[in-house]
Write a structure and sequence with these properties.
The complex is a heterodimer of chains A (about 200) and B (about 190). Chain A is mostly helical and about 200 residues long. Chain A contains 9 helices and no strands. Chain A has 2 domains: about 120 residues, Rna Polymerase Sigma Factor, Chain: A (Orthogonal Bundle), CATH 1.10.1740.10; about 80 residues, Winged helix-like DNA-binding domain superfamily/Winged helix DNA-binding domain (Arc Repressor Mutant, subunit A, Orthogonal Bundle). The longest helix of chain A has about 40 residues. Chain B contains 8 helices and 2 strands. Chain B is mostly helical and about 190 residues long. In chain B, α2 packs across α3. In chain B, strands 1-2 form a two-stranded antiparallel sheet. Among the domains of chain B are: about 45 residues, no CATH class; about 50 residues, no CATH class. The chains are: A mainly alpha (about 200), B mainly alpha (about 190).
Chain lengths: ~200, ~190
Amino acid sequence: MGTISSAQQSISIDRQTELVNCCRLGDKKAFAELVAQFEKGVYRLCYRFFNDENDAMDATQEVFIRIYRALPGFEGRSSLKTWIYRIASNTCITIAGKRRREKDGLLQTIINWWSDRNVETPEEELIDNETRQLNQKMVAEKLEKLPETYRMPVILKDIEGLSLEKISEILEVPVGTVKSRINRGRRMLQESLRLYYQRSSE
Amino acid sequence: MKTCTRYLDYLEQKGFETDSPEWQDIVAHSSRCPDCSSDMKLRGAMFEALKQMGEPKYPVDLHMRIMQEVESAPTAPGETESWFDRVFDFALRPLEIGFSLACVLMIALMFSAENEPQHLPRSAPPIVVAGAVADEAVKPVEDLDPVSAEEVQQFLTRLDGFNRRNPQPQPAGENYMPELRLVNDWK
């Protein structure tokens, strides 16, 4: 399991603060160092979210553009790592939502939003009849089909291995909400994998 | 066909409370129930698959591409996208704009209708003193002071004298008769 923390432990808190201060003054070398420290973690998160190399690359670039613009406003209320992953999460969710809206159109988006509010059972449309070999690729494909709201918490918890408190800080939602989104996301993912597992066990 | 969902329901509701007595009951139930048992196995396999997801293959030029993009990006956010693009969905833009214009037009019409001056009905008594509309006419009838018959008579006498002393030329071709009514006449 690739953990976010492993990539950033090589840089001390003091050095992070120093880098942020230099970036604020327009030091591009400092920003390049900061990018080097976090680029793999951000790319990994984006890749898990989109399950596509090109999309992950585009999202990673967008994340660092946003970080570059927002760095002067970084107040240090959370750690730099949390702040960067918050931007990464928001960027992924925003890009995915925008693409969905562009694809579906406004009317379909409203219908989806309304049906999401009313449907209590897991989305049956996630269950398909394909009988592919179970591997990480298949799980990743099913994961990519989860709604963004549930996808990111599941990725952060079950793949990146972050604590509930850290996820709550990154997503800026209460711990209770994080728990319920993870539980719901896991169930939806499990339902989508159920057919395959049933067939493979028969 | 799967029918029992006790295991999944519990996890969905209280997935992080796996040390409660209720959870022990669920585990005991799942060992007997074929549906929940298969769900339990599936959950384990799913977690295993998620945990085993290794590092992705990072692009060789990841750092370079990020830095290039940052350097070539506009300095301020939103420069690449206008508010118009953000607000209006591309596919349904004509419909959205039409609907928005219709709403604006309706509000404007409603506003203009509300501000239109109110005309008195024909049956309402004209409040005219010597041919001129009195400003006090807007006062409600209840707020006006009652006038006695003697006062009315005095006023008419004075008015008659004034009219005699200052005769007004009558408009040609019209049988002009200035109308005078007092508040007391309305009742």
